[in-house]
Amino acid sequence: MKAKILWVEGKRADSPSFVPDLRRKGFIIEVVPTGNAAQAGLSEAGADLVVINAASLRSSGKRICQGIRSEWPKLPILVIANPDRPMPKDACADVVLKLPFTSRKLVNRILPMLPVVSNNLLQTGPISLDMERRLVRCEEKEGHLTPRLTLLLKLLMHHRGEVLEREQLFRQVWNTEYTGDTRTLDVHISWLRQAIELDPRKPRFLRTIRGVGYRLDV
Q1: In this structure, what is the dihedral angle of CA atoms 112, 32, 17, 66, given to the nearest 10 degrees?
Q2: 4-113 topology per CATH
Q3: Which CATH class is domain 121-216?
Q4: What span, in angstroms and rounded, lies between the C-alpha atoms of 105 and 110?
Q5: What's the pTM value of the predicted model, to 2 decimals?
Q6: How confident is the prediction along the chain (218 residues), in pLDDT tens digits per residue?
Q7: Rounded CA separation 135/153 (Å)
Q8: In which residue ranges of the chain is CATH 1.10.10.10 found?
């Protein structure tokens, strides 16, 4: 079963519509023109995520957000905002993206908000790992991993927030009792940072715990 997105979008000509591109990528999208239509659509068919293209509505999207949140408090909401119209802090949206941005960036922000619909898909914060295709997405980055890197990231995701000792990681990922030289692990950690970090030299997610090992912070 594929996730469903309810998309609120007006007909403002100078606001880009990402709907055709996202549909080509396989997303199931129902488009409605107003906040009232959005609430009616949610009542009838539901959705896994609401996207409000506020830039196409000549508004901030605040009222639509608050109306949806009052009825469906746990439903994720993403707002596409015009940079000339600041989004109020109390608008209740989970994510606000200000134009301009690419379809890829939009997809990378949508995926973590959708429910996991596959046993082969791991989701931890902004990191999404498709173990079958060995594909990782994190914020604006996307890339393919080797089998070893996939296993390493899977282990870190299962133990997010925990410090994993270098010897423990090496033992489990390389399936060996020999842990006398774990420099190979350090190299793989470097490659993994290149795959998920915007700036691998200043990692936000995959942290080094000096003298001990590594920790995935999300």
Answers
A1: -50
A2: Rossmann fold (3.40.50)
A3: mainly alpha
A4: 9
A5: 0.57
A6: 467 899 999 887 566 789 998 888 888 899 999 999 999 888 877 788 999 999 898 788 889 999 999 888 888 999 998 888 766 666 688 899 999 999 989 988 898 888 765 567 888 888 888 888 888 988 778 888 999 999 999 999 999 899 999 999 999 999 888 777 888 999 999 999 999 999 999 999 999 999 999 999 98
A7: 11
A8: 121-216
